[in-house]
C-alpha cells in the first residue's frame, strides 16, 4: 500500500520522516517538524496521521522502512493522538450515558438492548430500498478500509484475556478467518466481492476517499485493540459490532441484488447474516460476559466500547447520507 | 485414553441454540441442512428467513412484543 495523500501539515511532516531510513533519525523524541505540525493540525489531518501510524502495525507501506513501527521518534506523537481520541470518545460516552451500569451477570443483555435501541439512521435500510449504484459504490469504498482487514484489530486482544473469554473469542476469530480455508477468510470474501463488482480490491486502496467518520471508526478499533488497558472497550466494541450485523447484512444483500450487483458481493453479506447471528451470542455472552465475571471493574469500559461502536456507526451513517444528500 | 468430551449445546436466553462443530439437521419436510461452522446457531423462534439456522430475527419478535 502507498502512503495516502496528506491532509495537512502533520501528514506532510510525518510522510517526510517515513520516507527516510530510521537510522538517520536516532533521536528518541519526535523531531521539531513533527511536534510543530501536530500543534497546527486539524481533525482530518490528525485522524489520517493516526491511521498511518496504526497501519505500520498491520501491513505497513511501500517504500516505508518497517523499523518505523516501534521507533521512539513516532511513539510520542502516536501517544498524543491516541490520548486525544480516547478522551473524545470517553467524553461523548459520559454525555450520552445517563443510566446505571449493569451488574456483570446482566452485561450481555445490556449489550443486546443497547444494540437494538440505539437511535440513528440505517444505511442498510437505505441500501435495501432506495440507494443508487453510485451511493452503494461509495459505501463499499468507505467500508473497504475495515473489511479488507476485518477481524484483525480484535485479534490484538487475544493474548490479553484469561482462558474463558480467550477460548470464546478465538472461536469467533477462527470463523472470521475462514476456519482453516483461505478462500473463506471474510477479508477474502470482501476482496472477491469488490473485484467482481469492478472496484479496486487492494488493501487500503480508498483511504484517500475516506471521510473523517470512516477514519475515526478505524482508529478507534485499532486504539482499543492495541492497548491491553483497553481490552474491555475492545471486546465491548466487538460485541456491539457483531450484534448490529446480522439483520443489516440481510438488508445490504437485498439492496445489492435489487441493483444487480455481482453475486460475490451479496454473498459476502449473506455469509454475515448467519455468521454474525452466532458471533453476537458468543461475543456478548461468552467473551464480554466471561471477561467481566473475572474482572468486574471492566464493566464500564465494555459498555463504553459498545456504545462507541454504535455511536461511530451513527456518525458514519449521518456523514454518508449528508454526502449523498439523502434525508436521514 | 480420555473419553471424547460430550458435544456442547447452549441455549441463549431469547435466542438460538448454539451447537459446537459440524451439524446435520433434517427439518420437518425431510430436507437435510448441513453447517460446517465452528459454532452453529439453530433457530428457536421460528422466524428465521434462513431456517433452520438463526439470522437474528428473534430480536425483531422481541421488539414487537414490547
UniProtKB/TrEMBL annotation, chain A:
One Pfam family name is Haem_oxygenas_2
Q: Which SUPFAM superfamilies does the record cross-reference, listed alphabetically?
A: Heme oxygenase-like
Record Gene3D superfamilies: Heme oxygenase-like
What is the protein name stated in its UniProt record? Answer: Iron-containing redox enzyme family protein
Protein species of origin? Nocardioides lentus
From TrEMBL, chain B:
Superkingdom assignment: Bacteria
Q: Could you tell me the keywords of this UniProt record?
A: 2Fe-2S, Iron, Iron-sulfur, Metal-binding
The answer to keyword Metal-binding applying to this record is yes
The protein's name in its UniProt record: CDGSH iron-sulfur domain-containing protein
What's one Pfam family the UniProt record gives for this protein?
zf-CDGSH
Protein's organism: Nocardioides lentus
Q: Which residues form a coiled coil?
A: none
Q: Where is the Iron-binding zinc finger CDGSH type domain?
A: 20-64
